[in-house]
Write a structure and sequence with these properties.
There is one protein chain. By secondary structure, the protein is α+β, with helices and mostly antiparallel strands. The protein contains four helices and seven strands; from the N terminus they run βαβββαβααββ. A four-stranded antiparallel β-sheet has the order 1-2-3-4, covered by helices on one side. A three-stranded antiparallel β-sheet has the order 5-7-6. A hairpin with a 2-residue loop joins strand 3 and strand 4. Helix 2 packs across helix 4.
């Protein structure tokens, strides 16, 4: 299964679903973003992830973490939930493990994708394809 998040694609689908008679006049239409970066692709079968078409060199845990967040886009997970769901171990009170993996993952994602792994202050992390 391959999952791709691309904002430009969503915009085209939405535009295609609105009949032309319901669209605002050409002068009033909101501008379409000229350069929307390609999304993050997760291929669980091949255990491959890419950002903007560039294959990422991820460790097992980094891949599992990114896949979990991307496949549950916009859902917020606490550090203890991520330890249980991704690491398969109960929360032992050390959320720094998750923090360190998120920091490494963001570094490997690079701009603009690093900001898609968002921190929800006081709660945990989420994947936001449109930060």
């Amino acid at each position: 299964m391959t999952v791709t998040y691309q904002r430009a694609h969503q915009h085209r689908e939405l535009s295609a679903a609105i009949p032309p008679s319901r669209l605002p006049p050409a002068g009033r239409r909101p501008p379409v973003p000229a350069a929307v970066p390609p999304g993050i692709d997760i291929d669980r079968r091949r255990r491959r992830a890419s950002a903007g078409g560039q294959v990422l060199d991820l460790t097992r845990r980094e891949f599992d973490l990114l896949a979990h967040l991307v496949l549950n886009a916009e859902l917020v997970f606490s550090r203890s939930q991520l330890l249980e769901l991704v690491w398969d171990q109960p929360d032992v009170g050390d959320g720094r493990t998750v923090d360190v993996h998120v920091a490494r993952l963001r570094r490997k994602l690079g701009n603009p994708y690093r900001w898609m792994v968002a921190t929800v202050r006081g709660v945990g992390y989420k994947y936001d394809p449109a930060p």
